[in-house]
Design goal:
CATH architecture of the largest domain: 3-Layer(aba) Sandwich
InterPro entries: ModA/WtpA
Number of domains: 2
Protein name: ABC transporter substrate-binding protein
CATH superfamily of the largest domain: Periplasmic binding protein-like II
Order of helices and strands: HEHEHEHEEHEHEHEHEEHH
Helix content: 25-40%
Number of helices: 10
Pfam family, one: SBP_bac_11
Largest sheet: 5 strands, mixed
CATH topology of the largest domain: D-Maltodextrin-Binding Protein, domain 2
GO molecular function, one term: molybdate ion binding
Structural class: alpha/beta
GO biological process, one term: molybdate ion transport
Number of strands: 10
Length: 254
């Protein structure tokens, strides 16, 4: 299908006997973009979208994987590519339905009004973490990377304590409440939170650029409408590109 045909299909009004509602479960990484553009999709197509949320990875009831395994119904999931791999292993994803929507690098943030540490290279980031003492991150893909890759690489002293919260929103709340002095997570999650300020991206050799991906769930009740939503989110339209840029994200390359 050509790009023009895909765009036309994504925005064609819903047919009279087609499904009028689909359900999406989305993680925090693409949530800001999704919220910005969803009303336009619903307006143009007549399809209503019910939205739930969950973590891309991790353990416990707040993960998308746990929700699907325990009976939560969805037509579309939007989460990190790493999280999607696990859903594929579980047989939860319709083959060939995946679409990379946008990428987000890891950044660090402090409480609004706090001093802004330099994190431009490995040594500077190490010192910023030591000075912070209490560090918070989501327990999903980004937090696991910080715990398993960044902290060991920097050989941090025991005085630096990392707390993993179930969701990025909870990590931001811990930072605002003074339970931590530095938060690390995807730029797209940090920039949408009030009361905190992004200080910069992690250095290139410690960076993790996540691709947030949409896919149709294997037992979706409305797979055709689900595909139309994914096609819409994949369009390089002005509204999508503006929202992606605002969230500190980029379209996947290649």
């Amino acid at each position: 299908m050509t790009e023009q045909a895909t765009a036309a299909a994504a925005l064609t009004p819903a047919i009279a006997d087609g499904p009028k509602t689909i359900r999406v479960i989305i993680s925090g990484g693409f949530a800001a973009v999704y919220r910005d553009v969803l009303p336009e999709f619903e307006r143009r197509t007549g399809i209503s979208v019910e939205t739930g949320s969950g973590a891309s990875e991790g353990t416990g009831p707040k993960t998308i994987r746990h929700q699907l395994a325990n009976g939560t119904k969805a037509d579309v999931v939007i989460l990190s590519r790493e999280g999607l791999h696990k859903l594929n292993e579980d047989g939860r994803i319709l083959g060939g339905s995946e679409a990379g929507l946008a990428t987000a690098p890891l950044a660090a943030a402090v409480r609004a009004g706090s001093s802004r540490p330099d994190i431009g290279n490995d040594a500077a980031l190490r010192q910023a973490l030591i000075d912070a003492g209490e560090v918070v991150a989501p327990s999903s893909t980004s937090g696991q990377y910080v715990r398993d890759k960044v902290f060991p690489r920097l050989n941090l002293p025991d005085t630096v304590r990392l707390t993993l919260e179930a969701r990025g929103t909870e990590a931001a709340e811990a930072l605002r409440a003074g339970k931590a002095n530095l938060s690390i997570g995807p730029t797209s999650e940090l920039v949408q939170e009030s009361g905190i300020e992004v200080v910069g991206l992690l250095p290139p050799d410690l960076q993790l650029v996540q691709t947030f991906t949409a896919a149709i769930v294997s037992d979706a009740l409305a797979p055709e409408a689900a595909k139309r939503l994914i096609d819409f989110l994949s369009l390089d339209s002005d509204i999508l590109l503006t929202a992606i840029k605002r969230a500190g994200m980029e379209r996947p390359r290649g």
